[in-house]
Design a protein that fits this description.
This protein has 376 residues and is an alpha/beta fold. Helix content is 65%, strand content 9%. The chain is elongated, with a radius of gyration of 27 Å. The model has no long low-confidence stretch (mean pLDDT 82).
Length: 376
């Protein structure tokens, strides 16, 4: 008898779930989509690292070295520097993650059997990139040195150094490779995404469930005014959260802010507004607060995994990188890490700011068009 009543209740629950088509679709499609997406996109083997070359020797041997290094597939030469100022600008602006410095007399040292020195400057704001770039370069130089030693041994009387080529790694911005220095600035973006999207995702759905949506419908408020009005109160909350994370990072984890705080807060305004607008997009699609919450959770995991917070952006395939470019968190992580760790300025971050502004405008426009002044 009891088992029969349990079966009836279970059957009733299944019928209710079947009527909620959005929830059913998310329950069935969410695991499949995320498995395919992340199984394809997540890769800790970092390749195609943006590299700038400072070749002071300008010899055939140095050019051959650079070509061979790039042919490994781990380094993509994106430019050539004329001095250490160019190297610093490229790394600070995020245009390159690695700089290879070839000193003068590199070719003559090799020909005369003297030890040749190479310098590898790495952006330490991402420890995973540092490890991959340094280890790969060390292996490459070791193989190159072995080839030279074999060639010298085959020539009688040729002087030879113990190690023909020596690599000197130099890590900037996070020389101790402390994980907290990398994680804490990223947590600013992750926490803001999680809370801001979730707060506003339930805004319109809550109005609908409480029956107060009708009051907005008969009011003279325009759609764009409603969207902006829903966003503004949460901006202050976002700033408070951001300030708390930065203060804890500074005094508990010792993460010093190198760049301009006013600049960081100015760019954060666009990021906070973009996440709030995205939450409103979910709110206009969902019929209930539960559905809005489910959509928020669905969106959160791709942000964490594809934005570069946990896994290097360079390690993802091109299609996954294109998808990540549409996420506000991807660009804000580059902004906050650039300002906090590298002291980047507006000129260095112009590209990321343009992307973030474009995403914000698109989200606000789409949200205002989604909302109709009628019963939904």
């Amino acid at each position: 008898m009891m088992s029969g009543r349990v079966f009836v209740i279970a059957w009733k629950e299944l019928l209710q779930l079947r009527r909620d088509r959005l929830t059913m679709a998310m329950m069935l499609l969410l695991p499949v989509i995320q498995l395919l997406l992340f199984g394809y996109a997540i890769n800790t083997d970092v390749r195609h690292i943006a590299t700038i070359v400072y070749d002071q020797d300008q010899s055939a041997e140095s050019r051959d070295l650079v070509r061979t290094l790039e042919s490994t597939g781990y380094y993509d030469v994106v430019g050539h520097a004329q001095g250490y100022d160019d190297v610093e600008h490229a790394l600070r602006a995020g245009q390159a993650r690695v700089a290879l410095v070839v000193p003068k007399n590199y070719a003559s040292d090799i020909v005369r059997g003297r030890k040749a020195h190479l310098q590898l400057v790495v952006d330490g704001s991402d420890p995973q990139v540092v490890g991959s770039a340094t280890n790969t370069a060390a292996s490459f130089v070791a193989a190159r040195s072995a080839e030279l030693m074999v060639a010298r041994l085959s020539n009688a009387g040729m002087p030879a150094a113990d190690v023909p080529i020596e690599l000197e790694p130099n890590t900037w911005y996070n020389p101790d490779l402390r994980t907290a220095v990398y994680v804490v600035p990223g947590l600013v973006g992750v926490l803001l995404t999680m809370t801001m999207v979730m707060l506003t995702a339930m805004a319109i759905a809550r109005e609908r469930e409480r029956g107060t949506l009708e009051q907005l419908i008969v009011s003279p408020v325009k759609r764009i005014e409603l969207v902006v009005g829903k966003i503004v109160p949460y901006v202050a909350i976002g700033y408070v959260q951001m300030t708390l994370v930065l203060l804890v990072g500074r005094f508990v984890f010792g993460v010093h802010i190198v760049g301009s705080m006013p600049l960081l807060y100015a760019f954060a305004l666009m990021f906070i507004a973009a996440n709030l607008a995205l939450g409103l997009v979910f709110s206009t699609v969902a019929q209930t607060q539960q559905q809005a919450m489910q959509m928020s959770f669905f969106f959160l995991l791709p942000n964490i995994l594809l934005s570069g917070f946990m896994f290097p952006y360079e390690g993802m395939p091109r299609p996954a990188q294109w998808l990540a470019q549409g996420l506000p968190l991807t660009h804000f992580l580059r902004i906050v890490r650039g300002i906090v760790l590298r002291g980047s300025d507006t000129r260095d971050l112009a590209g990321e700011v343009v992307w973030l502004a474009a995403i914000l405008v698109a989200l606000v426009t789409f949200t205002s068009l989604r909302f109709r002044k009628k019963l939904l």
